[in-house]
Amino acid sequence: MSGDTREMYADLFKGASTVTIEVLLLKETLRDAKPLIDEQKWSEQEGLQIIFANGLYYLRGERQLQHLPAGTDGLAAEVERLTTELMDMHSKYAVMKFRAYTLNEAKQALEFNVTGLETENRWSTARLWQFRADEERMQKELEALRAENQRLRQRLAQLEAPAADVVSPHSRRPFLARAIKALRRG
Predict the structure, then answer these.
(1) pLDDT tens for residues 8-17?
(2) CA 72, CA 132: separation in Å to the nearest integer?
(3) Using CA atoms, how far apart are residues 49 and 59, in angstroms rounded to an integer?
(4) Rounded to an integer, what distance in angstroms lies between the CA atom of residue 75 and that of residue 83?
(5) % of residues, the chain, pLDDT over 90
(6) CB 9 within 8 A of CB 92
(7) The whole model's pTM is what?
(8) With 0-12 CB in 10 A as exposed, 13-18 as middle and 19+ as buried, what is 103?
(9) Is 91 helix (H, G, I), strand (E, B) or coil?
């Protein structure tokens, strides 16, 4: 926005604030307003605010018409003033409409990004649970392999240790030699 435009609309919201009011209406009045609100695709709150503002400015306009001075000179001056005010309002409305459009575009882009991030988060969470299940399965498998390794090491140690009751072939030789001599003799 250029510097001139900022200055032009600097007072647009000057002194603006909100207030919450409660208004008692007939159901029929609200029912009559709903088609107008839906037709314009306004939210209910937005529609009621617009209807209230339009009614307010209509009544203000009627009051101003009642106070017009008699004659065409006063009427021409009032028409000129209202035309200037209308042009000012239209220019401000155009800026607000453009700003609302750009904000809506940004909102849609953010919603798209949020949707993508939510999908990525769900996928990541599912993958994380899969990794945790894989880790748990691998931990159990590792414990089983460690137990099998320990069992095999113990078995190997048993096989490598010389047994006291096993006779080595070398220790049998003298016995065999004597037995063979005894058999030859007789």
Answers:
(1) 555 656 677 7
(2) 86
(3) 15
(4) 12
(5) 29
(6) yes
(7) 0.39
(8) exposed
(9) helix
